[in-house]
Every structure is written in C-alpha cells, then in structure tokens.
Amino acid sequence: MKAGIVGAGALGSLFAHIFQRTGIPFSIYEKDQSIVDEINTSGLSLAENDLTDIIHPSINTKPGILTDADIIILFVKSYSTDNAIKDILSSIKKDSIIVSLQNGLGNFETITKYINEDRIVLGTTTIGATKTGLSSVSFGGKGVITIGSSSSESIEAADNLFSKAGLQFTRVFNPHIAVWKKAVVNAGINPIAAILDIKNGDILQIPYAMELQKQLVTESVNTAKAAGIPLDIDIMLNEVNETCLKTSANICSMLQDISNGRKTEIDSIIGAVIETASHHNIPVPVSETIYLLIKGLESKKTTIII
After folding, report:
1. In this structure, is residue 20 part of a structural domain?
2. Cα–Cα distances in Å, from 225 out to 103, 123, 189?
C-alpha cells in the first residue's frame, strides 16, 4: 500500500518521517513551490530528542504525484480543504481512500461534496509538531489518532497503514464525536497560546489562562451538546489539560500561523462553535471575544498568506 500526503506542513512533514522510518512508500503533494524547492534541495529534516534526521521524500507541486497512492491523508488547513480536494480529484485513483486528520469542524462535509462517504476515513490526532522552516519540523509530543468510517474496508485500510507505521490509534463508531472533542481541545488551547504567545504547557502555569481555558471549554461543550454531541465538561477539561501536558513543548499551529503572518484556523474551530451556538441560541460570549482577538491578530499582520 502506498500513502499520499497532502500538505507538507508540520504534521505532514512529521508523518513523512514516520512513513520513511517504517518502510511505507509515500509521496507528498505540496502546493507551495518554495517549500517543494527547499525540500528537494536540502531534504526534509526532523528534530527529535536532540537528534536531527533528514530524508529526501518524493514531493511535487503537481497533484499527479498522488496518482498511485492507495490511501491519501489530508494535512492541509481546514480553510484549504475544498481547494485541496478539487486539486487532486482528477489525479487520484477512483477507489483511493481519503483520510482527514485535520483540525476544525466541517472538513468531512467539504470532502463529501467530491468524494463518496464510504471512501472517507474521518479522524483526529493529538500528536504535536512544529514547522521550524520550509524544510524542517520539530517533534512536539506523542499523541493518539482516533478514526472512524462508514465503510469497513476503508477503516481497515487506515488501520493497516497506522499499524505498520507504529502509530497509536483508536477506532470509533462515530468519528464526528471525536472531531468535536478535538475542536473543543483546540478551542481550549490554540487561541490562548496564540494570544499569549506561549507554548501549550505554559497555559497550565498561568491561573488566568487556566480560567479562560475553562470558560472556552464550557461554552464549546454546551454548544456540542445542543448539536447532539454527548460531551461532558469535566471530562473535556481533563482531556484539554492532559493534551497541554503531553504537548507541553509544542508551539500550537495557531501561534505558528500568527507569528508567520498566515491565516489561522480560528473560523473552523471557535468560529464554527459560535455559528453552531447561534443556531441553537446558546450564549458564547467568551468564544466570541476570543474569536475577535484572533481575527484582530490576523489583520495586524501586513500580509496574510492563504
């Protein structure tokens, strides 16, 4: 089985290293020519446990590089999902499996506009990684993968891939619950770390940040419940804290994006929570304020790279 990676960002780059070390053939589709040129010239480096490993993956700006991929993992930002699927649609196999391990809400709905549901594996991951340069990534902390699908064949393919890669994962009946859980975790970590310019673990050292985290998680869980997703506030608060601990050294993607003048995924995380809350008449004043702050930080940059 050959894997395809869409997006050579932090997690896409990390998974490339994981596949390389476990002998899984793969190729990378990356739209940014500067990233592709840099990786082709210097290789793709991974910093982990004071060691640096460099690989030279097959990578291209042309989606045809995914033509022979049996299972394709999306690592693009949520706001790029629609364009990414449209880009690769005519190049991939008619029976290839699409795996989404992306942040945010709404990715599944976007993918199903182009790909049959039985070819989609929806999931999340708490593995941490930080992009430190065009061709470099730093491991941010161990985590787990949660996946589910309406198709037993598709979920088995993903199971086989992650098993061979030595990755810890869990199969669930309803992956949409997992996606909402991840969105709540992201809501309770990413915007706080981005606004305060701190690493994930630092949140636990600041009482005010912890209180803000509690309010964001509470609003997100209440919204999820209204949308029919059975989450518990105490359980989710504990999961958010555990994620902060496990990825304590990680610079979250939202902070990375703000620091580099890029568009963040706030719309598919806090923005999606606010939109869902509005449909169910759930008040989320803290989420609304945090959303505006992140959008303000986005606008503060002179150049927003989309």
Report:
1. yes
2. 19, 20, 20
